[in-house]
Structure formats: C-alpha cells, structure tokens
Design the sequence.
C-alpha cells in the first residue's frame, strides 16, 4: 500500500484547513525528519532563492534553517484551495544567536499527489527585524 498522509485530495474547505494545521504543527515541532514525511520522496521546493529536491535535501535544509532561526514559531492561514492545491499565507518569528528577533512573512503554494503528500512547495518570504516587545507569536 502506498504511503498516505490524510486528508487526501480532492480538498474541501474543511480538509484543506486540516492540511494547513497539520503542516503548522509539524513545522512547529522543528523536527526535520517529521516535517519531511509530509512530502513525496522527490518533492520539489523553492524556498526564497534556494531550490531543494527530495526528502534528504529537505531534512538537510531544515536542520540548517533551525540552527540559524532559533526559537522558531509559525502560524499558517489558509488562503485558497482547489482539488489538489492549497495556498497559504504565513508568518513566523525567530531570533539569531545574537538575540535579534525577526518576523518572516510569506506565501506558499502547495501541490499534492493522490496520497496527500506534497510534491511541490513554492515559498516567497520576507523578513522584518523586530524588537522583543513587538513579538506576536509566543513560544
């Protein structure tokens, strides 16, 4: 039986929102292996100006990301969906090892296979330096 990650396409408003919450929970775990299991073995990503292909590269990318982006905390919001695609807007907060906080904003476009695994993820992200007092997302 093929590996599946419910809910499966075609998406409804309810199942698309479930998919968004599951992704948010996985990313907030900051566990690269756990996150990678939501993607196909040959998943393609564009994250800012970085292109990643496959689970092994996803794990490597996320390990490096969370070594730089400390105390990462993410919120995702469903923007739109179709049968097998979901678009989200998101923001996350993190800080450097020198203590500078950032809020990163962006949009993602997701494309899923029939088993509910994400085969493509395209993310556009911008960063804003913030003070500790400006933080909106608690750890």
Sequence:
């Amino acid at each position: 039986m093929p590996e599946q990650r419910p809910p499966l396409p075609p998406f409804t408003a309810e199942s698309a929102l479930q998919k968004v919450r599951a992704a948010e929970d996985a990313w907030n775990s900051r566990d690269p292996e756990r996150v990678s299991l939501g993607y196909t073995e040959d998943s393609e990503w564009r994250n800012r100006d970085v292109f990643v292909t496959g689970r092994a590269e996803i794990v490597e990318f996320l390990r490096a990301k969370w070594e730089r982006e400390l105390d990462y905390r993410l919120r995702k919001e469903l923007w739109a969906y179709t049968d097998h695609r979901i678009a989200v807007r998101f923001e996350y907060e993190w800080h450097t090892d020198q203590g500078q906080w950032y809020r990163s904003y962006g949009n993602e476009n997701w494309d899923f296979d029939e088993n509910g695994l994400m085969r493509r993820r395209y993310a556009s992200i911008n960063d804003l330096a913030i003070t500790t007092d400006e933080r909106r997302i608690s750890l």
Q: What stands out?
A: The chain is about 25% helix and 45% strand.
